Amino acid sequence: MIEILIGSVGVLLGGFLGFFFLRFINAKKGNDIVEKAKKDAEQLKKEKLLHAKEKFIELKSQHEHIINKKNNDINNTQQRIKQKENTLNQKLAQCNRKDKELENSKEELEKQKSAIFKKQSELEKLHKKQVDQLEQISNLSAEDAKLELIESLKEQAKTQALSIIQNTIDDAKITAKQEAKKIVIQTIQRIATEEAIDNSVSVFNIEDDAVKGRIIGREGRNIRAIESATGVDIVVDDTPGAIVLSCFDSVRREVARLSLHKLVTDGRIHPARIEEVVKKTTKDIEDEIIQIGKKTTIDLGIHGLHPELMKMVGRMRYRSSYGQNLLQHSRETANLCSTMAAELGLNVKLARRAGLLHDIGKVSADDHETPHAIIGMQLAEKYGEKPDVCNAIGAHHDEIEMNCLIAPLVQVCDGISGARPGARRQMADAYMKRIHELEDTALSYPGVIKSYAIQAGRELRVIVESDKVNDEEAEKLSFQISDQIENEMTYPGQVKVTVIRETRAISFAK
Fold this sequence. Notes:
CATH topology of the domain at 307-419: Hypothetical protein af1432
Low-confidence stretches: 186-199
CATH architecture of the domain at 307-419: Orthogonal Bundle
Order of helices and strands: HHEHHEEHHHEEHHHHHHEEHE
Structural class: mainly alpha
CATH superfamily of the domain at 307-419: Hypothetical protein af1432
Shape: elongated
CATH class of the domain at 307-419: Mainly Alpha
Number of strands: 8
Largest sheet: 3 strands, antiparallel
């Protein structure tokens, strides 16, 4: 039992000692762990502090950069403000100087005004004194004397005006014919060559120049026979493949051209054959003229026209006016008249008839001095046309007074047909001259800065200075320009005058 007891005590003592030994060892290990954790914590703390310092330094540098930038912006803004302040100060100083100058000028003006008022009052006193003296001398009041003077001046002005008018009329009667001839001669000198070449010359083309010798004939007998039979001048020169036929009568030129064509085609060219061919060709042309007249009247629906008038209508085919074929112009005028008459509720047939016959006097060979409108009216009366048609023919150029509604209609349609673009030939120089005259007419008025003639001279746009011409003056200016153009210039149709007045307010934002 003692051994068991000793063994038990030894076991207990060993267990107790082992317990304390293990506890000691665990305590030592815990201290080591704690020390290591403390060291790790210190190391981590140092690293975090270092990282925080670096971040702080970085943020600080960025903040300083931003602050420096803002400071620079503030400095620049302050400099601009100072510059503007200096500029404003300078302007303020200038304004002050100008104010002083204005005050000085105002004072001077006041002094001048007072001096002027003083002089005016003195003059009024002197004038009143003189009027009183004159009233005492003449035994008339100022108003009575003024009225008497006005009446005497009126009578004197009327007498002088009548005298001037009478002298002008007498001078015009003496010099009108001479001046008219001078103007016609000058016009012929300027444009007759081109008009004569275009309207009095035809070219007969030939294939072989040897035919020229046969046309001339021995000692020129063939060409003389052709000229004698046709009344046309034949020019045979060195121009290859062409012979020129010259005559103012287009019908004769056509007869000569067709006769030459038949002679050259036939090959027999001698005086007897020439006379035979010319007679036959003349008859063919006359028949063709009659057929043209009939066809024209049938196309237009005109019935009962006298054969002589129908023949004259056919002759229009060989006549031109300012480069416009006369028959085509008359047909166009007739169609325009019928259309307008239908729109206005007038007699369409009479209007169409008057439009076709309005230029019939141009193809008459009887009288070259009377205006063609009067000749046409006389022919229409001779061949039994109605009075309204005769009046419309005679009045379409205002040679006689219009007494029917068809007359102004024919006049208007004649102007439309002649003035439309491409209807008649115009010289380029004359066109440019008319355009420049329109623009120069507008520029001659005060306040006009620019003028433009547009739409082939049918509209004139005038630009005026807004500070010199007001709205009322602009309206008055358009009337004055249109009146001057109407009285001083010649133009087809009508000219529209547009005055443009514009005000512009401009400012700049800096």
